[in-house]
Amino acid sequence: MNTEELAKKVAEAADDKKAEDIKVLDMRGVSILADYFIICSGAADTQVRAIINSVEDALEAEGVYVKNKEGIDEGRWAVLDYADVIVHVFHKDERDHYQLEKLWGDATEVTWQK
């Protein structure tokens, strides 16, 4: 599975748990941190954790395992690091505050829905 397919799989898994405003950003040529960022949000801490679990389960089923993760217990801003794909799952309030997609405004948004 290439990194674009992986990013789309993440978006689909987040969508399965009703994540809001899912963005897949192509970071190649914009940042050396990763090829893709996926940014989405949940309305409650429990939904943020459910989205994270859905993403991890979907990728583990494909034999892809998270390298590092942060913020899972708090459910405010969780990050899953899959090396070339980084997943940011925000509580809606945190996303409105940090506006991460504006920071990476030069990145191209990728269509992920079938």
Write the layout of secondary structure elements.
Elements: H1 3-16, E1 20-26, E2 36-42, H2 45-60, E3 68-70, E4 77-81, E5 85-91, H3 92-98, H4 100-103, E6 108-109
Parallel strand pairs: 2-5
Antiparallel strand pairs: 1-2, 1-6, 3-4, 4-5
Family: Belongs to the Iojap/RsfS family.
Protein name: Ribosomal silencing factor RsfS
InterPro entries: Iojap/RsfS/C7orf30, NT_sf
Shape: globular
Please state the second-level CATH architecture.
2-Layer Sandwich
Q: What is the strand content?
A: 25-35%
Q: What are the segments in which pLDDT stays under 50 over at least 5 consecutive residues?
A: none
How do the helices and strands follow one another from N- to C-terminus?
Answer: HEEHEEEHHE
The total strand number stands at 6
According to CATH, what is the class? Alpha Beta
CATH topology: Beta Polymerase, domain 2
- Straight-line distance between termini: 17 Å
Task: State the CATH superfamily name.
Answer: Beta Polymerase, domain 2
- Alpha-beta content class: alpha+beta
Bin the helical content: 25-40%
How many individual domains? Answer: 1
Q: What's the main sheet like? A: 6 strands, mixed
Count of helical regions: 4
For the largest sheet, list the strands in their spatial order. Answer: 3-4-5-2-1-6
Q: Tell me the Rg in angstroms.
A: 13 Å
